[in-house]
Structure formats: C-alpha cells, structure tokens
C-alpha cells in the first residue's frame, strides 16, 4: 500500500478531478518540441496571409470515437485554402457521378507545384483534384450543376463536415480574387479544353470563396475525423459523405495531398494529408483518427513546416502510418464454445436433463465482434467450416458486432445459408447490427431465427434438441404431473412423505403475466410448478448505467421456486412472473412449521431435497461462470 | 425444422465432411470470371519466359491467421522476376542501415517504365528500389556487405519468407544474364556515380539470379502474408523482417510497385502490390491478407492482366483498399464494470461482506482486447481518465490483448503510473502479452501487481478493501472462532442447537496442499472452516480443448463446504484442497443421521442454514453470470 493510502486519509482520494490523459500529454510534448522551430516563411502573396503570426501553433486530434485532444492555438481562425480541395472534389463526386468526374479530372500525382498548370496536353484534364487546376475544374462542375445555389450548398456541406457553420473571410476572398491571375488563366485554359463547359468566372468565384473559408484547427480535425470514419461525422452522427467517395478522397490525399512531396510523403509518413497555404495541415488515419495542425510558416513545397514535423513524429514515434497495420488475426471470434458449456436460464427437470445431456454438444455457440468486413467474414467462415459434423445447431451471437458492410454481409448470408443447406439450424442472437432490414431479400432473414437475447436462443436450441430426441416431451402435456410424486423435485421423497406434503399444499392457477411473487413480498410460500412456465425477473444495472429487466431463471413443471425466502424467512428479492398459463402446488409456512413439529422426518426430507436442488443449480451456475471467464 | 431433419434421419448429418467456405467460393468466382480474359501478351524477351502458357491462372489468399485459400494453377513454378525487388530492398535495409540505403536509392515514384534508367541526374541515385536500377543498386549493397556469402544469405532469406527452400531457375538465369545488356549498362552507370562502389559484375550476377528464383503462386501469397503481418511469417512463426522495414517496403509497394501505373493504382485499387514480368502479382492488405496471382499475359505496363483484374475486383467488390478502413471506435474496451458487479470466488463471511458491500464500487474492472496500438491506448486512456474519484483500485484484465507494440506500451506505462500517482492501486490480470520482460525498467513492472488469473486479482482487490476498511480482519487471527457459535454459517442456530452439534463434530487440521476431499470420495462428511483457506478445484475443458484446473470457489473461516454430497449422499464431484494450513469442524453422516432421529429440530435448523447459505450463493452466482452477459 503506497504511503498516501494509510487508513487516516482513506476516504479521500487526492482531490484529483480528472486523471491526466497520456494522449493529451503526448500532444503537449509534441507541441513543446516543435514550437521552437523557426524554419519556413509565412505566405505573403496577399497581404491578409502575410499578417499571420508565425508563432501560432495548434495541434488537434479528433478520434473516431468522438473525442478531441487539443493544444495551443486550436481555436484561432485562418483560411482553409487548399485543404478545401479534397472536400470540393468529394462534393463534386457526390453531386455528379464518378464517371463524369473521371472525364474531367485525372487522379495521377503531378510531381509539380500546387499552382502548376498541370493539364494533360491532349485532353486538357488536370492531373489531379489536389492542384489548383483540378480544384477549379471540380468547382466548375458544382457551379454548373446549380449556378445560383452552389455557394449555399457548399457552406451547408462544410457545416456538416465541421459540425458548425463556417463563414467566408471576405478580405481574403477579395484579395485572392483580385490577385488570382494565374488561377484565372487556368480557368480559361480549362474552358478552352471544354473541361469547364460554360463561363469560367462563376467557377473561379466559387473557387476563391471556398479557399477563403475560415476554419480553426479544431474544425479541420473534426473534418479529418469525418474522413477517418468513412464519411460519418463522429461528433454529429451525420453522414456528409458516402463510404465510396471517402475512400477515393483518402486515396487522392495519400498520393497527391502534399504537392510534389507526395511519393516521399507516403513513404516517410504514410498518412493521407492535405495542406493549405495559410498554415493548416489536415491528416487522416483511416478508421481511427483525424489530425489537424495550424502553424503559418511554410516550407518550399508550400506545406506548414511544423505541421509536417508533427505528422512525421506521429508516424515514426507512435506508428501512425497507413502501412503500419497490426495483425488483426482472429479478432472477430469473441468466444466460441460447445453447447455443454452454456445452458439456458430455463432450469430443466431431471427428465429433460437426461435427454439433453448427451446431445448438448450438438449445439455450438459463437460470439462475433467488431467490424464484419472481408477479413472478419473470413475469420468467421474459417471457424464455421471446421464445425464438427456433430454440430446441428449454431447460435451466432452478434451483440458485439459494430458494423457489417453490405458487400461482406452478402458473404455472411451465403456462408450461413450453405451451413443451413448442410442441415445445421442457425439461431442468430442480438443481430441488431446486421443490415437485415435494408435488403429484405437476404436469405438469412427468411430462413433463420433471430433472438433478442442469447438466453432465448440457448433455450430455443435446448427446445430443438428436446423436440428431436424426445418428441413426447416436445408435444407437451399440460395435465401430466397431476400426482406430486411425478414432480422431479420431490422424486427422492418416499411416497408416504409426498402424500403427507400434498395434503398440506394447495393448487393455484396463473395466467400469463401474473406476478406470482413480487419483490418485497414476505417469503412465506414455497412453490412447486405443476404446469406452465415461471420467470425470475431482476432489474440489473449494467455498465451503461441503464436498468435492464433480465430473466435470472425460468422454472417449468417439476421444479420448485421461492425456497430461499421461504426457508430464510426473508422478503422476496425479485419478481416471479408466469410467462405461460400454469399451476403451482403451494406450501404455506404455517403448514411447514406445523409439519416440523408433527412430521420432522418429512420436513428433513424436504429440506434435503431443497439443498440438493439448489446445490446442483449452484454447481452448474458456478461452472458456467468459470467457463465464461475462459472465453 | 427443415424436411431433412425429421426424426428418422436425425443421428446423421448429410455426410458432409467440411462445410463449404464462402471465401473459397468467392475465389472460385473470381477465377471463373477472369479466366476467359484474353488480353495481354506473354513476355518474350527471353525464350524461357515466352514458353509460359497464357492460360495458366492461379489465385491464392493467405491470411494473417495462417490460412490459405487457393484456386487454379497455384502450384506451378515460374520466376519471381521483379517481385523480388521489395524483398531485396528489405534485405538491404536489414543488412545495412536505413540511412545508408537512403544515400544510395531514392523512394520517389519514377513515373517511368520498369527498365528506365531513372537516375537522379546529379547524385546518380535510382529514383526508387522498385525499378531495375534501384534493385541492382540494392543487390550491390548486399553483395558488397558479404561478397562470397550473399547468394546463400539471399536464399536463406527467401526460405524464411516463403516457408520453403526456393531454387533458382538456371535456364532463366543464364538467359537473363546473356541478354541483360540494358541492366549491365545500368550497373556500370551506377558504378560511375559510385552508387555501386566496387565491380558491378557480382552485383549484376546476384540480380540476375534473384530474378530467376522459382516460386509458385502459393509461395508468393505466403510472402505477401509475411508482409501483411509486419514481417512475421504467419505460417512458420518466424520473423524474417522487422516491423520498421516491413512498413517501409509496403509504402514503396504502394507508391512504386506497379510501374508508372502507380498513382492510378493506389487511387483505384489502393493495395500495395508488386508485379513480375513472368506473370506474378503479389499484393498485401496490411494487417490482414497476402494475395498472389499467376497469369503470364502482361499489359502495356508489364503487369499481369488477370492479376490486375483480380486486385481491382477485390478492392472494389469486397472493399480491400488500404483507404477503406472501418471505424474501430472503442473496440479496445472489451468490458468495463464496477466492482459490485463482479466478486471473487472466495466466499466471504457475513462479517467480511458487511465490510465489503459498501466499498465494492471502489474497484473498477476493465477488460482490454486486441492490439494496443496508439488508437487502442487512446481508447483505454479515455476510459481511465473518466474513472470516478471513488475508484481506488483498478483491475486491468489483459487476457485478450493480442499485441502491444513498444511505442504504445510506453504510453500505457505512463498512463497507469499517472493513475497510480493519483492514489489508484492497479492490479494487472493476465498481462502475458505485454512486453514487460523485454524492458525491465518499465515503471509498470516495478510498482504494479500482476496476477495470473482475474479471480486472483479480484480476491486481492477485496483483500485490499478489507485491509483498508477493517484492519482487524486484515491482521488475521488464526485462533479466533474457537467457539462454533461464532462461525458465520451457524449463527442463525440457537446456542443450544450449536452445542448439540459441536458435541457430534471433530476438529481436523490440514497443511497447505492437503486434499480435504478428492473427486469420487463418498460424500459422508460436512466441513465447517475454523481457520485456513480451502479451494474447490475443477478441471475445466475450454474451447481450445485443453483442461485447466480452475478454482470454483474458496472457503475461509466461518464457511461450510461439502454439503451437497453430504446431503445428497452422492460421491464428490471435485477436489477440495487446503491452500493454507487450517482446521475444520467435521460432521460425519452417521452422527447426522443419529441426530435426525434424536434431535430433529437441530437437523432441521442445520438444513435450513444450509439452504439459506447455498441459496445466497446461487443468487450471487446467477446475478454474476447475468451481468457477464451484459458486458
């Protein structure tokens, strides 16, 4: 025990409100180690940019889980400049088709500076959308599609990307517009080649405006996180971009994002990124993080010196390269075990247990987790094809699946249907994340049973086994067990003892939904199920802070419940509810107490039966719990 | 129930040996859809290559989990040709330093054909290692480092990559050597620039030999999987390449692997790949899959036509692009819950429970899984910093961590030490995958307790709480409880009943390691613990088919065990072992039976106590099991 934990000061922890976050610390170290860098020059081709403070330096990381880490000048506004390019291209892809855009702009790294007039000599197509020519061509397509609404549309779009309304810096816009002769030349050259099919001036105007959108480092990080999450903004939950478009844009940022620095960039840093001449850098770790930096001094390529340094350090120091992917081997199978290792909460009678026990391993339970992408489906398929020939029922629990893209769901559907064709019954449990709804013709939906709880699926599997291996039990017979002696629980008692007990018990009928016992009731009755089905329901508070009403156990004919409160004379700790119409034999404590005096041997026999019954349940439950830990 | 499952034919499943695997089916469909492609021409610059059959077509996928899917001509040998280049560069990096190699070869996409003499006009450095000039330069460095041993070294290296000994096709080698005038020119030009610092002929000879290494499509897939697993061969377990080198090589394959097709390739396909003029293509999905195809007809870039088509289809059809990474948001936290939701297997006396119950939520249990890379640590850190100020003990279960790279382990170490500095005791459970051993100066190792089982960590946490909140209990007093009346379990009995019982019981002492009960023993004794500690140990067969001896429960002073066999008169189902020296009160069944006749009220009271005791344990265990399902 550390010194500060001596008993005297135990009830208090050291007055810490929040623990330090090591990621935040790392960001602080990054900031400190590069804030002294003095290389680079602030862009000065228009006066507004030259006004930027070269010492300004902010770093923000925004995660796919919707968390933000920031340090330095992360709330200061600057103009987005070329960082608008990937987003404008994405908007053009969204507005028009992939094929149309392919007819307008190539996607080859240019190996030339950002403002090079890098057009294909024959077609006039800009080499890629990350250079000025490509961005002007993309703006023109957006402009042409809706000349009067283009600007509003663009600002709405940037709002959905950044999670807040962005405005245009009018000074920068006017200044760029006045001095943008080279860009104007590019526009008219594109018009000449018919890449722009109408007057290029509105397109150029839109281009100048989009470059003058005012952002903070934090805005850029949220936009980067949106690209990291395949077009879904993890802070707003909106989906400004489709999955397909996001993949294309990230690829372009990977190859053409950092000007003619591109090949070396991908090799050395391996992070899709885009820089702007005002000092911003936006970088994306697909699936994981958005990163943004702001520091105005630029290197010879036009990239922020400190921004490049931060990206390099994140790549080299903490391994954030696109090519640095750790093996996810077999992360998809959360747990996989035989049916004998997991029983449903329905307590079974001795007769049912006798039938079930030799057949339990005909059931296999597999819990799947994470993203069911191609690699995930491959892992699952490889587990499924190795199922023993004895396995007749597969329970697939999907509670921890976070995503199942359409293209891989198709594979899952086929794999399950193929198993089913081989005679394996498939029960899905907690399949809410599967896109079952979105395409109603999946074979899965038609033919495979889906359960809301694993426990229900387990019970259904047991019922299937009973129906296969004991048709009589499956047929059901609500009137059997009229004689208490047939009740499994009292079987160990002699006939005479049973008769003495029966004389003291009353039969009580319930309809589905009846509360047999309510939490807090005095525990003065013992119940033996004659027919029907009874659930112990407990409100359980789980990690998410929510209360879930969960069945702790289910009792059918031959089983007894209510014994703990009855024997301990304590109030009931849970509700017991009839889930089907049924009857119980009920023993009241006053009769039990009277019996203790008049027929102690009967009471001893009853208590022994109770001890054995609860003891067996405790053994089973303890083993289940232990097994759960091993998976 | 489907038709074929009627009861008659139940015991048999339809004679299927293995279920069809949908990934294998997909491969078959890919093969079928491209085997009809007739474009492209077989390379014919040397006669041996011209002999290749244009119809040969094989596809292999090798997974990071060590599984292989193959279809078509996957076992036919052909020469590796340029696919050797990334591996030769990697060998050069392995043999020499990164800095040295950077002085010899650039890493920029050349935008030129594979055999272009693409050297920097000033330094003479080849543009990248994926063109002939770069590969000859790399071979020369390997050759220079060990002129006589280079070839053996190279073949050993390829053996570790492919998992089998590869040989050189002597015909191809001689033919390439005889006709390789252009490559010879490149070699001498490199000598001229002093990129090659000695006679270029041995380097050229090594180059011609390495291009003539004979491989199958399957070999290439294993080599690709080795790159996918950061240099670890998932089939042999060997580590031919370091993590750092593999990342570099994949980046190069991404930008320069498919000749001047590179930018478009990364944009359209997004898979690091390398092709060879004999018809092979090797492609890597980092962290996931190696892919290889063999089909000799080449397109104008020198890439196999069908190979390119397969890669394109895998990228577009099933989403295997580098830029298509699904959000792994918060996949690292497997479960996280409060201490009140999970108790150790040590059954606690009523007195201990009274102390523990109000303080249990001072413990937090977090189960972590998968790869603890930067994003994983970030997720964990964000969970840890939100710990309530009440939390005084953190149990971090790492059983499902698959990997923890050094650079992120450093962050984990810092995060945990920072928590500890704030007064949180940290108990690690099942931390085997942490690189604790490799760097003994981690703060974690010194200051934080590590447990082999979660259960032991839970018990340690409870013991800590007891030591903090009830120093008397913590001090321990082996001689307390001399009077049976103080034993928690019999507390409900009247003093007279206890006295009657004590008269029938004997005290028995055990040393640590003693078997108190052996599985199979007759159940004729009931034990009440006076002092010491006793474990129920069960051999549990888990999913991996292994038997694990696991403790099902532990009993300390005041608790009773052995009751189920005793009451049910059945043989013991598990061992009970003394883990510390101690004593029990023992009641033999003959005395119990005698008591039933002479003092039924005592027996009834004892059985009631047993029922309550087991009932309470059953409730707790059932709730635990239910909670486990919710996390």
Q: Short description, anyone?
A:
The structure is a homodimer of 631-residue chains. Helices cover 41% and strands 19% of the residues of chain A.
Chain-wise SSE layout:
Two copies of one chain form a homodimer.
Chain A: H1 22-35, H2 47-50, E1 58-63, E2 68-72, E3 78-79, H3 84-95, H4 98-102, H5 132-145, H6 150-162, E4 167-168, H7 170-179, H8 181-192, H9 200-211, E5 213-215, H10 217-228, H11 243-256, H12 262-268, E6 273-275, E7 280-285, E8 289-294, H13 305-318, E9 333-338, E10 346-347, H14 350-356, E11 363-371, H15 374-385, E12 393-403, H16 406-421, E13 425-429, H17 443-447, E14 449-451, H18 454-469, H19 471-475, H20 495-504, E15 505-510, E16 515-517, E17 525-541, E18 547-555, E19 560-561, H21 563-568, E20 575-588, H22 589-598, H23 600-629
Parallel strand pairs in A: 10-18, 11-12, 12-13, 13-14
Antiparallel strand pairs in A: 1-2, 1-8, 3-5, 4-5, 6-7, 7-8, 9-11, 15-20, 16-20, 17-18, 17-19, 17-20
Helix pairs in contact in A: 1-13, 3-5, 3-11, 5-8, 5-9, 7-9, 8-9, 15-16, 22-23
Q: How many independent structural domains of chain A?
A: 3
Oligomer: homodimer
> Which architecture of the largest domain in chain A does the CATH hierarchy give at level 2?
3-Layer(aba) Sandwich
Question: Largest interface: which pair?
Answer: A-B, 158 and 157 residues
Strand percent estimate of chain A: 15-25%
């Amino acid at each position: 025990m550390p010194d500060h934990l001596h008993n005297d000061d135990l009830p208090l922890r050291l007055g810490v409100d929040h623990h330090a976050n090591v990621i935040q610390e790392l960001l602080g170290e990054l900031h400190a180690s590069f804030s002294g860098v003095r290389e680079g020059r602030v862009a000065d081709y228009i006066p507004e940019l030259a006004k930027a403070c070269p010492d300004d330096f902010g770093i923000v990381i925004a995660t796919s889980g919707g968390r933000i880490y920031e340090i330095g000048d992360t709330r200061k506004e600057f103009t987005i400049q070329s960082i608008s390019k990937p987003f404008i291209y994405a908007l053009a892809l969204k507005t028009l088709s992939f094929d149309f855009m392919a007819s307008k702009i190539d996607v080859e790294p240019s190996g030339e500076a950002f403002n090079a007039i890098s057009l294909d000599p024959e077609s006039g197509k800009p080499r890629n959308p990350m250079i000025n020519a490509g961005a002007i061509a993309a703006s023109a397509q957006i402009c042409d599609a809706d000349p009067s609404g283009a600007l509003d549309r663009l600002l709405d779009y940037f709002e959905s990307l950044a999670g807040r309304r962005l405005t245009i810096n009018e000074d920068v816009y006017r200044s760029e517009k006045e001095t943008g002769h080279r860009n104007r030349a590019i526009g008219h050259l594109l018009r000449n080649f018919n890449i722009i099919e109408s007057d290029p001036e509105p397109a150029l105007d839109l281009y100048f405006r989009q470059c003058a959108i005012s952002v903070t480092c934090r805005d850029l990080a949220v936009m980067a996180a949106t690209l990291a999450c395949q077009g879904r903004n993890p802070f707003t939950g909106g989906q400004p971009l489709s999955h397909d478009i996001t993949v294309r844009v990230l690829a372009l940022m990977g190859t053409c994002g950092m000007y003619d620095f591109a090949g070396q960039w991908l090799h050395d840093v391996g992070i899709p990124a885009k820089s702007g001449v005002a000092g911003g850098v936006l970088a994306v770790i697909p699936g994981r993080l958005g990163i943004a930096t702001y520091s105005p001094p630029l290197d010879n390529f036009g990239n922020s010196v400190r921004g490049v340094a931060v990206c390099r350090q994140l790549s080299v120091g903490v391994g954030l390269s696109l090519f640095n992917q750790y093996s996810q081997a077999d992360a998809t199978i959360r747990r996989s075990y035989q049916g004998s290792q997991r029983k449903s909460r329905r307590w079974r009678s001795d007769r049912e247990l006798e039938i079930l026990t030799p057949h339990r391993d005909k059931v296999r339970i597999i819990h799947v987790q994470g993203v069911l992408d191609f690699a995930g489906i491959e892992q699952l398929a490889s587990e499924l094809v190795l199922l023993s020939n004895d396995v007749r029922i597969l329970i697939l629990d999907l509670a921890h699946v976070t995503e199942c893209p359409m293209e891989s769901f198709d594979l899952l559907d086929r794999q399950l249907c193929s198993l089913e064709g081989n005679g394996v019954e498939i029960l899905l449990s907690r399949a809410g994340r599967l896109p079952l709804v979105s395409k109603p013709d999946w074979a899965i939906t038609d033919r495979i049973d889906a359960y809301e709880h694993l426990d229900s699926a387990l019970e259904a599997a047991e019922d299937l086994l009973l129906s296969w291996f004991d048709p009589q039990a499956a047929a059901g017979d609500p009137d059997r067990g009229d004689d208490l002696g047939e009740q499994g629980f009292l079987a160990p008692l002699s006939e005479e003892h049973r008769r003495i007990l029966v004389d003291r018990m009353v039969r009580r009928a319930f309809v589905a939904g009846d509360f047999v016992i309510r939490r807090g009731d005095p525990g003065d009755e013992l119940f033996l199920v004659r027919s029907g089905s009874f659930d112990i329901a407990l409100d359980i508070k789980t990690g998410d802070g929510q209360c879930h009403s969960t069945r702790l156990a289910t009792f059918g004919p031959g089983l007894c419940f209510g014994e703990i409160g009855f024997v301990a004379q304590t109030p009931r700790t849970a509700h017991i509810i009839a889930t089907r119409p049924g009857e119980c034999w009920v023993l009241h404590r006053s009769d039990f107490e009277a019996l203790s005096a008049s027929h102690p041997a009967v009471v001893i026999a009853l208590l022994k039966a109770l001890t054995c019954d609860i003891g067996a349940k405790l053994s089973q439950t303890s083993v289940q719990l232990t097994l759960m830990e091993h998976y």
